[in-house]
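Question (not urgent): is this output format expected?
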Amino acid sequence: MLTHSQVWTALDRLAERAGMSPSGLAKRAGLDPTTFNKSKRITADGRERWPSTESVSKALAATNSSIETFVQLIGDGARGQQSVPLLALAQAGGGHFDGSGFPAGKGWDEVALPSASDEHAYALEISGDAMKPAYRDGDIILVSPGTPIRRGDRVVLKTSDGEVMIKELKRRTTKTLELQSLNPAHADRTINADDVAWIARIVWASQ
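Got this back:
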């Protein structure tokens, strides 16, 4: 018997194979961006909500996948993956992180991505073209707060003023951080270490 969980898991895996989040897949399929969100899978009164055959069909067309592929995804375990919290980068400046830079509060979705071996790992979905050519609109990055950061790593950083940015770490001293912009059209930044609320390394991107 086909279960509610199996169908939704297959849709999640279909999105992951295409390098997208569930909401990214919905948008690519011409559907409302929230169509495949986890919050929509159970109704307010606790009933299971199944995806329509039309929405599944559009998702398959958007990823150039066959129904046979979808059936395989129903039974194929997500090997070497973990389910991590997902948030749109544009929302990251709000109250979605605790003081250590770990996901907190409401508004997070979930996505299955390659395992980061970090229980606090999370994903951010890029919007817009401000970080081209490094990241494109719709790309997902996997962030690992527990992974050591080295010179040359791409990082997510939040300042004490609430600004969230993605940069490349050029140099780090006890007093300052020198950050290189991923888009050559944007200026590099130097930030006082005291003004950094938290910083975490990007360990994977869906490209």
